Target: Fimbrial-type adhesion domain-containing protein
Amino acid sequence: MNTITKFSFLTIITILLTLSTTHLMAADNNAVALTAQIGKGSCSFSTSTDTVEFKNYIVNDFKSGDAVGILPLKLLYQCEGYDDGLKATVSVSGMTPQDTRVFLSGSSTASGVGFMLKDGNITETTGFYNAGTTLINGKLFSVNAVAQGEHIISIGFVKQNTASNVTSGNANAAVTFTFEFL
Model:
């Protein structure tokens, strides 16, 4: 009789386990997508100011190849997690109506002038138009992406390199810097 009791007890447990397993097998299956992204690091960028304002000039101040004034603009950056030597690329964009190297908004009432951006610290107004590396609309330049720092852009107020005469009025430009990482 002891063998029958053990057999009945094992049979009941086997039936219960089979029923619970069958119930689990009838449940809906849910797929879980697993994703991850490995980044090179992160950076935050800003400019030292939102407005660069030159003093007033007269038409006769403008000479071909020279700037009447130069002001610096600092691109400030804070980077983490990048390998030494990695560069962030920056593009500059804005309106360049006649001379692709000189930025000038369509709302400007002055003509024959504009704002030329140079990579680095250029301080000499004479020969500014051809000095250093000019930042051209839509083209890329690089900044060091290690730790934190600043990248200097020199902005010169220049006569356009066209046949246009300089006329009096208001000159303005909006320039956008777009940061990307290699």
